[in-house]
Amino acid sequence: MVAEEIQAEIDQLGVMAVAPGQAELALALARTFDETEAPTSRAVVARELGVVMKTLRALAPVRSEGDALDEIQARREKRRHSA
Length: 83
Known about the structure:
This protein has helices at 2-13, 20-35, 39-59, 68-82. By secondary structure, it is mainly α. It is elongated, with a radius of gyration of 19 Å.
């Protein structure tokens, strides 16, 4: 279901604390999408959900873990300390 996937993405982004209203709106839209059968209604809900999720992705805190630059810096530090 779309609502489960949206919940997982919101959790991964860590935006509930940053923008709780937007996160709840995204979840409500996702639930509406799941419950609606009319193609036109689903299209409208999907478009609005996309807009809200774009906003949430932009508000997501920056995470540096797993970043390529962090990996390069870690290798440099390791070489410096082992030389």
